[in-house]
Structures are given as structure tokens and as C-alpha cells.
User: Fold VWFA domain-containing protein from Modicella reniformis.
Amino acid sequence: MTLSSSSNQGTSDVKIVDMHHADQDDENVSASPKAAICQAFHPVETDDSLTVLSFKVPPIIEEEQSVIKTPRKEAYFDICLDVSGSMAGSGIQCARLAMKRLIDHLIKTCGVPPNRIMVYLFSHQCNVRNVNGDDKWIDTISANGGTSFACVFKEVIKNIKTHISELDNDDVDLETTLFFFTDGEDGDAHNLQNARIDLEKLLKSTPRLESTVHTFGFTASHDAKLLSWLTSSGSNSGCFQYIKESKEIDKSMSTTLELLGDSAMAIHRKIEINLPNSDGVVNDAQDWIPVKLKADGMSGSTVVRQRPFKGDLIKWREYKGTDSSESVVQDMHVNWSSEDDPLRIVDMATFIQHELLRLVEVINGIGSDTSQTPEQKRAKLLKIDEETEAYSKVLGTMTSTSARMKLNLTREPCMVACQRTRSLIQSFLTLKADAHKQGGSISNTSLATFNSLAYGEITEAKLKAKLDARAGKNIAMFAEMDQKVTEIVKEMDLDKMESEEPKDSLRELSCAFSTNSYVDALLSRGAGVIADPSQLIIKSIFPTYLTSSMFTTALNHSLSQNDPEDVHGGFDRNSDASIAPGLAHENITAVIPLYINAEHWKVAKLRMKPILGYVVTLDATGYTYSQSTTVPFLVLAKAFESFPMTEFKQRQLRLILETCDAIYRDSKSLREDTKALVKNFCASHTQRTVDVITNNYVFLGHIICALRAGDITTADINALWPKFETAMVEEQIRRDMSWRVSEDLMGSVMDWFDINRQRDIVAPEQQYRVQHDAYVKSLENGNANAGAEAGYRRLFDMARTEQGVESLSSHDKNPSPELPSSSTAEEGPVSKPVFKIPDFDPLTWQLSEASLDRLRMIQNAISPTIDKICRLLTVVRSPLDADIPQVLVSLGATASTELVDQFFAQYSTKIKLATLLQAFAHTRNSSRRSVENFMTPFERKYADGPDQSSDEALLFLKSLYLANMNSVAGKIVAAVEEAYMNSKENAASSIFLSADDLTVAAGVLLEAQHRGGAGGRLTTLCARSRMSLPREKIQMLLTGTYRHVKLFADKTGSLEDIRWFPCKRTLYRMFKNYHGEFTFEEWCKFHPHMYDDYFAVRYVIDGCTDELPVEKRVEVRATYESLRSPTV
Assistant:
């Protein structure tokens, strides 16, 4: 037997871009497709004219070989080496060695005839020679002269044209590969441009010519723009390598040789594809796109631009050169990849990398185009900014999607691809910023560094795809075989096989060294399982037995041969680790000993300790007592889930149950604890929390064993029923809510009550505001300002008296207007308004259809674990004889979630909703334990009659409604009061600005108390506004006193003399409005830094020097002239 477990925890601008799937590589051995299929996606959602296609077509069958002729391939290799004077010394020495290695690889590994390899040695002129198998002449190559790329381009063009003219028929294709080594810049720019145009036209636009250019730039002095263009000038993607020092040439050549592999002369099958228009009509003959397939002859990929396509079918045919029109047109079905498809993410990352290289060439073109104005160049660069931003957003989505992938096997390559692409985008943004500053021009070093990084990522991806395909070849074969074995085992009638097999044969098939038997377990664990073994979750049970020696041997061998994380899975619940395979090659990462008989158990329970220690903590010495009283019972709970329950599984479950029985009988403390927990379980909700009962499945397993041992009787259980059942189910729901039911799914409490916002909230709020306004108005009685001014006078007088300042003489204060008496009010104040909450009757209230749907979704979310609880509860209430056959048959015939559906069907919708809402509110253990008014869960069944207004569930729902509506009302009342207080504060500011009585103004500042907060806002307002008596009021604000009375403090809770100063902006605003109210010296004294220079400049700039004495004007202007600061 085995278990599985986890811890709870285009015009056609078409260029073939190899996406390099490992499962599509040359060496892949996957099954051939019976029909052509295609995976497609749009890199940018808003642009359906850009499509990435990856497809696989059926192989050519033998009967068609005579009809379909794969074109013969003529391959040539051109090696262009810069031998100008700058290469002298170590540079030319390393280049000679690298060229030798390249030629040797092409001849010996790839089987290229020597006469197909041409060497171009160029400086200010170009010498061409054929290899012809002799490489001694390479050692004689020397470096001298200038550098002319035009001369080597012309020779390459000449030779390629010669090769094309030598093709004898239409069945021959020509492929040329260029290797370009240089460390300098072109010294013949006059002839270079035309040579570039001719070379690119030849390489990209010649029918039946495929070309690839690999470039090597030595040191920072090489022409990065030229090599960047050259690398992209072929019909296939080449590789660029930036070699900072000559000693790196050999390493770079190794990378190139790995990339070439041994397939340089391999003949590849070709097809043509056609993207039908929106009406499904095949486009014109010239719209057929040729695609070279990989070495497997079935898979390929391409990027199609400027051709809108969203269909589910494309056309394809075999490529036969000029006679392709005679090929049979076939259908290729298109599957559009989803955003979370790992292959799409990796392909998209590769696509973005190629796109960034393309955009670099566009930027280079913008920078070198002298016919465009700076504005035109800027417009084009801004368009590139838009494209880059779009790809950055896509990459962000890809990264987020990759991070959410559960399987490390798929998550890791996606995350790596995203991270590398993000680094490349950052480098591109730096390069692009450089281009913006220089009108499209890019520095040579920046471009060389970026190209090296970009092509390095692409090259590494290509090499990894080759290596992964080789390493995965045998693994794929075994995986396919294992899958077949698994399917065969599933179809086996194990019961019949066992009954028909002779006992002697069964004995022989048992482990020869077994002194005990084990149930093997596939485990993945979270780190929390070390402290709490109940976090281990058993996923499935398999029919495999191992001896302890075999398991230990397999464990030690696997740990010595593999990464430990790949063996035991660490603490990653999604790990696919394996110590050893089971009967059907299922992964095994742990075992649990079984009870066979009393004598055997003496040894087995001793062996159990280190085994459980390893299973739970990955350390054989990490055993604790709780592991033996937990893990086997988790296995028992899983065994009761078996559906259907075959005879074999019944025997399997009986072995597990007998093991748990033995553990229970041997543990006196477990027996006593179980009896006490059962007795107190229904007494209080605080006796069911996780700090009391760690795991409900384990607890029910203990109860089953207690019943079988006679520690608890069936009568004891029946006395607790049905409260025990409903309490257990509700407690498990509460524990599941935090991770099975999201806050979005549960929604706001108010959502359940179908609140009409306009009727129940907006309209009462409007009514409350009207009533509050009337209430406030009645209090003020139309004399707000007059009454307020009198209050401010009284406030000032009180402060003067408290501070011991003598009364002001009549000539010291401005006359105060006579105030009307408040006794003239005709009406008294109205009563204070109250926000009215609409009534709610839970008995007549009905849930909306949307709420009912949401309730069903929540029920479905928690059903899997509640079904397991229901199964265990069924066992608890069943006769538990030695074999327990009846309950096993009953459970085995019950499909998953059937029992939980039956349980929920017993209760009304409102009863279920109240229970779920309470459980969701108490997901934290502390919340459950601290609640005082606990509602009895699942209080009334349908069979006991309809819902009653006195039911705890309905009272609970009403209390929830009132609590939430009172919260809403409280917020509304607070907002209205805050608005009123703000209006009072604004009124105080208005009184301060307009008051002609300075004692009133002083009273306003006294009420502010501090120059921070309200006082600070008042100071700012005064600086911006016009006011009466500005000199006196500004002095009040800036000195904090009036007639020796301290008006406010500069620090909360303090009246000490702490000097406060306004900021420079506030000072400037005051100066601008009231510069004539104070002398130059007074303005300077308003700040401790004096600000002499600042105010001197302000007087000059604002044209206020006429207000100064003549001698001060000269001084101020001299200060201004000495500064002349544009920042003033």
C-alpha cells in the first residue's frame, strides 16, 4: 500500500524566430501528431496583426516520399577576420586559435567539405582563400593596415552570387553562414553604405537562400552599430558576442560551437503556411510564408507581422520551391494559448528579447537618418517608448502569473525567463534614454553592452533547450512508460488477482528480509509540520508494501545520488519529490509502520520513532510523541475516503485501523485525554478551538479507537448527538474559512441583507443633514458672528486675567459695536436630530438570488473537508466490530460530497447563512475564544419546523444587520459634525480677517491655542488674503502676543516662550500683500535667520525700493547685484 500526502500549507514581414521548446527540439522523441496543430498568441492584446505561431505537422509517410521531395541543401561557411593593425599581438593570436577550432569543428563534427569553407582576411583590402583541409597557413596570418568593411562585404556578395549561379536545379537550397570577427571601426565610410544595402538585400531577399550571421566584437573600440546591424541582416537570427579582452575569444568560440552542434549540414523539411482572411479565404499566392522545420521534420515556429489574424484555422502545404503551388493545401487547427500557459510565457519572453533587438536597429536608423528634423526623430522615439511600455506591462503580467504557478517544474523556468527579460528591458531603457538625449544616437559602449546581454540571453536559451532535450530524452521515455504502467495497474482487479494467486506465490512475492510491513507514503510538507504534525495531509493511498531495510536503503541511495530537495521535497507542499517508486512508479517519500501482530508490534513501534521523525521533520532524530499519535490517524482518516471501497481497500484500511488501535491502547495519556475532550466538546465553544483540539480528523480517529477499546460507549456518543455532530462540522468550517473562502467570495455583511442604498442610506442621510442644519441654526439664532465676537472678547479678558495682565485702557482698544441680546430670539432651539435606521425583520426577509448563488459557492468551497468529517462521524456512530464491514461498504458506495450535501440539506438557508457568517467572523482562534454571545450552530432542522423569530440564528442575523447599519449611521453623523466644525473654523478665520476690534482678533488666536493646526492654517490664510488692521494682526500672529497677553503656544500643552517662525513662502506672501506695513528691519526680524539678503532681493524684484530710505536703497540694490541669483 502507498499513501500520498501534503502539508496544509503582416505585408509580410516574416522572420523565423526559434522559440526553442525543449519538447520541440531536434532530439525530441515525442509521438508524431496525426494532424497539424498550432499554438498561437498575440504578444500585444490590442494588436491582432502580430502573431507568434508554434506548430507541429505530421511526418512525411513513406508513400508520399516519391511525391514530396525535400530540397537538397548546399551549405557554405564564410569566416571574415579583421587583420587590421589594431589586432596585432594577443588579439590576432587568439583569433587564429579560434578560427582553427571553428574550421576543425565544421569539418570533423558537422561533416562540412573543406571546399565549402571560405576565409576572408580583411583590413584596408580583402584576401579570400579556400580552406581545402590545410590549416597551417592560419599560423602565418599577421595584422596590419586600416579597416574597410566595404571590401569584405563586396567579396562576400560576390561569392554568394557565385554559389547561387552554380545551383543546378530547383531542388537545391542554398544556406550560408557568416562568422565576422573585428575589433575596429570602419575607415572607409564613403563606400560602406552602398555595400551594406547590397549585402542585406542579398541575404534577406534572395529566394531559396537562407543566411545566418554570427558576429564577434573585440574591445570597446569595435563598431557596435555596424555589428548590431550585421547580426540581424540574415534571414535567420544570428548571435552577437562582445569580447572585452582577447583572451575571451576562445570562450566565445566554444559557445558558438555548442550552438552549431553537429547539424550544420542537416537537411531540414520546409513547409509553407497561409493565414486566411476574416472570411476564411486563402490569401494570394505571394502571401504563402515559407517555414523551415526543425531536425525532427515536424515542429517549427514563426512570427507573422502586419497580418490581422484571430481565426482557428490556417492553411499549410509542403514547400517544393517554384512548384509549391502544386502541393496539396491542408488545414492546421489553431489553439490560442492562455496567459498562464508556461510555454506561452517562455515564448513571450524570447519574443520580447528579439523585439528589443529590433527596436535597437530602429533607434540606430533614427540616429543615422540626417534627413529628419529633431522633432521627427523625437516622435519616432516616443513611439518606441509606447512599444516598450506595452511589453513591460505584458512582462509584469507574465511574472505575476508565473509566481502563482504551483508546480516548481513549470514555475522556475517561467520565472527565470521573466527575470532575465526584465533585466534586458532595464538595459534597453538605459540605452533608450541615451538615445533621447542624443537625438537617436547611441554610444558605442552602451550598444555593445546591450547587444552582448541580449544575444547572450537568447544564446543561453538556445543552448539550454538543446541540453534539456538531451537530458530529458530518457526521462521522457520512462515517464511515458510509467504512465502506461499506472493505467494498466488501475485496470487490474487486485482482489481477483490476490484470490487466484497461490499462497506460496504470495509469500515469494513478499520482501525476503521483512520483519515488519509498512504503508508507503508520498508526502510534501510545510515547515509548520515540524511543530505540528497534524499539518501533514494524506493525499492518496497506494497498494505497495516495503520493508524498513528496503526503505532505508532506497533513502540513503537517493540522497547520495540526488539533491536532497528532490528526494524528500523539503517543506514545499507542491514538491514532486521521490525516494523510490511504488508498484505503478508512484513517488514515495516516506513510510509508516503497520501493526501485524503483537510480537511484531514490539519491534515496529520502536522502528516507528525514527521513521516518523524523518517523515515529519526530515531528521530521524526529530521524533516527538505527538507524531505517533497524529500521523497514523491522518492516514486512517484518508483511508475512510476510499471510493469505491473494494475488498482490497477494506483489508488495507483494517491494517491501518489496527495500527491506530495499537498506538491508542499503548498510550495511557492519549486515552485519558480523548475521554476528557469528548466529555467537554459540547460544553463550550472554547473547548473546540485549535489550541485544545489540534486536528479534527485526528480527534475523530482517536474517538474511533476509544470506542473500539471500550473507553467510550455508543451510549456516550448518542447522548451528545446531534450537538456533537453540528459542533464538529461548524468548527471545521471555521478552520477552513480562512483559506478556502476568500473575502471577495464572502463579501460584505451588508451584501447579504440586500440593502437598498438609496432607500436605506442615502435618503435617511439627506433627511438627517436637513434636520442637523435646522438644529444648528436654531442654536445660533441668526446672530452667529455677533455672538461669536462677544465670545472672543470674553475669551481674551479671561486670558488677560489668568495671566495677571492689567486691564486695557479705553484708548488702547478699538471701540466695540453694541451687540444685540440673544434674548430677542423668537424661537427656542429644536431637538437634536437622530439618524433613523430602517427596521429589519429577519423572519420575513428573504435572500436574493445573487446571495443564494454565493451561499452555494461557499458551501461548495468547504464541502471537501466537511465531507471527510461527515464520513468519520458516520464511522463514529456505526457498530465497530473487528472487521467493521458494514460501515465500509456503506461509505464505499457513497460518492464524494454526498454526505455533506445530505447534512446541509437538513437546514434552512438562514440557519446555514448565520452559521457561516459567525464562523467567518471567528476565523482567528482568539476571536472565537473571546466571543461571549455564541450562537448555537445549526440550531434547527427543517424537520423541527420552520424558522422562528426567537431562533438564535435569526436573532444573530438581526444583530449583524443592526451593528453594521449603526456603524454606517455613525460614520454619517461623524461626517456631518466634522463638516460643521470645519465651517466654524472657517467662520473664525473670517472674523479674524474682518474684525476691527483687536481684542476679538486676539480671542480668535486664543481659541486656536497653537500656531500649528488651526493657527498655522490661519497664518497661511492671512498671508494670502487682505485684512483690516494688517500690521497689528500680523504682529499678533508672528509674536504670539497682544498687549502683553500670550495668545497661543508654539508647542502642544505649553505656554513657554518658544519662538515660532513662518516659512519663506508664507513670509513672501505676507510681504507681497503688506510690504508697506513694516520697515526692512522689521521684516528681517520675523525670522531668526534674519533673511537680510532675501528681503533685499524681494524689495528690488517687487519694485518696492521707493519705500526705503535713500541710503537703504543703495545697500539693498548692491546686495541684489552681488547675488543675481536666478533661484531667488
